[in-house]
Design goal:
The complex is a heterodimer of chains A (about 400) and B (about 350). Chain A is mainly α and about 400 residues long. Chain A is about 60% helix and about 0% strand. The chains are: A mainly alpha (about 400), B mainly alpha (about 350). Chains A and B meet through α6, α11 and α14 of A and α6, α11 and α13 of B.
Chain lengths: ~400, ~350
């Protein structure tokens, strides 16, 4: 175990000691590899499918990481933003509101068959912007009541909001403000417009490459924003609030604004990924907005390491692959080998629950821990042998 | 002593401040009374009398008795280690499943005589209580004790993890859809009628089990040596340890008591609703947690009061609004309580809420 740790640490040290331009070169090479990756696989195959989902989950996990990992506000209702993002594209990118504009529909930036259909049809990029705005507003609305609370009370309030939004999604077909239904209820909104983006070939179920590139673009954007935010004044304020709210407030960190910005940013990324998923699955199904989804995303960031950006990406990819590849695929027959006759796909959330428990007990800092949090967790227990470099250096 | 010389700004008694003080004291009570009073006025105005609303409240009280038992588990655990035991609702679900399986094993069916049914149910209930108590102690040992020094997020996450594990156990046990249960006590049979309000067997069962259990529990916590150890640990674990109290055993005991109550609640739930399923625990857990917070978390009497109030809100919403909206209404109440009176009806300010 300790040799393994030593090995990983030596990799980390080697990476740190590389010159800046070599690092940059490796980064560019990795990026080019990721962009070219789909050409090596069939366009409608399961590899690109799994990779696309993993990337979209990474976007979602990076969003939740801002709220839980950076600002330390345990949000158990993240599914709310998945739902809101998905409904944004359901409202503005499908034939759901067929009666608007005398059945002629409203079209902005769409071409082809879609531009003749009734309903509101906005370009995918506009829908993404709308999803970001809607979710950021709701993130603030959900954040407001939790401002006075701490710790597990925040978890419960956000959970309650998530459940209420799930309920509204299911019963929304009977809610009709201004004569338009809010959701399609259990029936679901389908079909959803396929994105129509310049420079990319046609999006479709048989050609998944443009979906992959869109997801990759979103993931890179969100990664960039995550890194920039973490090292900004706001990011330091989030971490200060996470470490000690009272101390942060007395050092002049505006608590209300800092927390609300964390909720809004996290929600915005969740909404973006939600809109993408709805388009990718070609449906907005009210039954999928369940509490277990929030836990699925939470498990990703716990597995990778709370607050650690690369860790969260790793956690998202691992769990997404377990969910979409290993459980239905290679692991499916595993129980039968042990003489048990149950279907592993039923148990996926039990497996995630088990992972949460095991990770928290055995390696609470996650697979790729953030340095600061690791210090926090090892503090007191054998503090003598922590040989991490001090973070404060003389100018 | 520098600070003392700074003049303290006195809060002026403007009408706005007075209103704020009034709202923070009575706001929750007003919100809680809004539903029943509103519908009662509506009934009277439309010439139907009060029987309907009293019937709703009666159903609410007997249904709330189940939530009260589950809420006690939350409140005990929160009072002692300040942790929301997320898996508690699922322990309650396992309680339902165990009691259902036990009376099946004991051979109690619809054709068994009344004496056999009562005896069988008592045995099944006791086994369910012990099983849930043991399960709860085990969860504490495996998932919470190793993390006692860790940041507070950690045990909450393992609690959620265990909740999922138990739900999957339930899913594998009885399948994914609600499972019908023999109506052993003829739950809907009208026992007698008082002033137009029908009292059914299920009401008598729920009240008849809950009230003695709560009395025994409150006596235990307030009168016995172990109960005193529990209260001492809740106030200050470190000082309790210095006074010679075995804190670990006391915490285990707390989980055991919570589990026992959840097991009893599971038995009542199975007989009351004549159906059990693996997701009953998740919703029950949230409802019971709402009840515990409403009463003031850490306060036993508060948990019972909260359970009864939530039961009434649920019944009124089921009957008058629409049962598909009931969870949303209960959660909306939860948020309102958290925002306006996090210390609950009977509770005091806690570290979390302050």
């Amino acid at each position: 175990m300790s040799e393994l740790r030593q090995f990983f640490r030596s990799i980390g040290d080697t990476w740190d000691s590389l010159p800046q331009n070599v690092k940059r070169g490796i980064g560019v090479a990795a990026l080019v590899f990721l962009i070219l990756l789909p050409f090596f696989f069939t366009a409608g195959g399961s590899f690109i499918d799994n990779a696309t989902r993993a990337l979209a989950y990474a976007v979602m996990a990076l969003g939740l990481n801002i709220v839980v990992g950076f600002a330390g506000l345990l949000d158990l209702g993240y599914v709310a933003f998945y739902a809101l993002g998905a409904f944004t594209i359901g409202w503005f990118g499908s034939g759901f509101y067929a009666q608007v504009n005398h059945q002629k529909g409203i079209h902005v930036g769409v071409t082809g068959v879609v531009s003749t259909l009734p309903g509101i049809h906005l370009n995918f990029l506009l829908v993404l912007v709308a999803a970001v705005i809607v979710c950021a507003i709701f993130g603030v609305l959900i954040g407001l009541p939790t401002l006075r609370l701490r710790g597990d009370y925040i978890a419960i309030v956000t959970l309650a909001f998530g459940e209420i939004i799930g309920r509204v999604a299911i019963n929304g077909d009977s809610l009709k403000p201004f004569g338009y239904a809010v959701t399609a209820g259990r029936q679901g909104i389908t079909p959803i417009d396929s994105p129509d983006l310049p420079g990319l070939s046609e999006f479709g179920p048989l050609n998944l490459r443009p979906w992959y590139w869109t997801a990759l673009g979103m993931a890179l954007l969100v990664l960039f924003v995550n890194f920039r935010l973490r090292d900004s004044r706001l990011g330091r304020a989030w971490i200060a609030v996470r470490e000690d709210e009272v101390a942060a407030a007395s050092m002049g960190v505006p608590l209300v604004r800092t927390k609300l910005l964390a909720y809004a940013t996290g929600a915005a990324f969740g909404g973006m990924a939600g809109a993408f998923f709805a388009a990718y699955f070609n449906t907005v199904n009210a039954d999928q907005f369940e509490f277990s989804f929030s836990i699925f995303v939470l498990a990703m960031i716990i597995l990778g390491g709370l607050g650690s950006i690369w860790g969260v990406v790793l956690g998202a990819i691992v769990l997404s692959y377990i969910n979409t590849y290993f459980i239905p695929g290679p692991f499916k027959s595993l129980p039968h080998h042990f003489g048990l006759n149950f279907d592993l796909t039923d148990l996926s959330f039990g497996i995630f629950g088990f992972l949460l428990v095991i990770m928290m007990v055995l390696r609470p800092e996650g697979l790729l821990p953030e340095r600061r949090r690791k210090l926090e967790l090892t503090e007191g227990i054998g503090a003598g042998d922590v040989d991490l470099p001090l973070e404060v250096t003389a100018p | 002593m520098e600070a003392a010389s700074i003049p303290v700004r006195a809060t002026r008694a403007t009408p706005l401040n007075a209103l704020q003080a009034f709202l923070s004291r009575y706001g929750l009570i007003i919100v809680l009374l809004a539903l029943p009073v509103g519908f009662a006025v509506h009934d009277v105005a439309s010439g139907h009398g009060l029987t309907h609303i009293i019937q709703n409240l009666k159903d609410g009280v007997s249904n709330g008795a189940i939530w009260a038992l589950v809420a006690i588990g939350y409140t005990l655990v929160y009072g002692i280690i300040e942790l929301i035991n997320f898996a508690h609702g699922d322990v309650f679900m396992i309680g339902s499943f165990v009691s259902f399986a036990m009376w099946g094993t004991l051979g109690v069916t619809l054709s068994t005589g009344p004496l056999g049914v009562v005896g069988g149910l008592i045995v099944a209930g006791l086994i369910a209580m012990i099983a849930c108590g043991a399960l709860n102690v085990m969860i504490e040992r495996v998932a919470y004790r190793p993390l006692r020094g860790a940041p507070k997020l950690a045990p909450l996450i393992t609690a959620v993890g265990f909740s999922f594990i138990l739900q999957n156990v339930g899913l594998e046990w009885l399948g994914g859809s609600p499972h019908g249960v023999d109506d052993l006590v003829r739950a809907q049979h009208i026992l007698f009628t008082v002033g137009g309000v029908q009292i059914i067997n299920a009401d008598v069962l729920a009240i008849g089990i809950t009230v003695p259990l709560v009395i025994v529990l409150v006596t235990f916590v307030n009168r016995t040596r172990l109960g005193r150890a529990m209260r001492a640990t809740a106030q200050d674990p470190e000082a309790a340890r210095l006074m010679g109290i075995n804190v670990d055993v006391t915490i285990s005991l707390t989980f055991l008591l919570g589990g026992l109550m959840a097991g009893a609640a599971g038995l009542i739930y199975a007989l009351y609703n004549t159906t059990v399923w693996f997701q009953q625990g998740f919703e029950a857990g949230l409802i019971a947690f709402t009840a515990a917070v409403m009463g003031g978390i850490g306060n036993l009497q508060g948990a019972v009061l909260g359970g009864v109030i939530i039961g009434c809100i649920q019944q009124i919403s089921d009957d008058r609004i629409n049962s598909t909206w009931t969870p949303a209404i209960v959660f909306a109440y939860l948020i309102l309580i958290m925002v306006f009176r996090p210390q609950g009806l009977l509770g005091e300010e806690t570290r979390e809420a302050g």
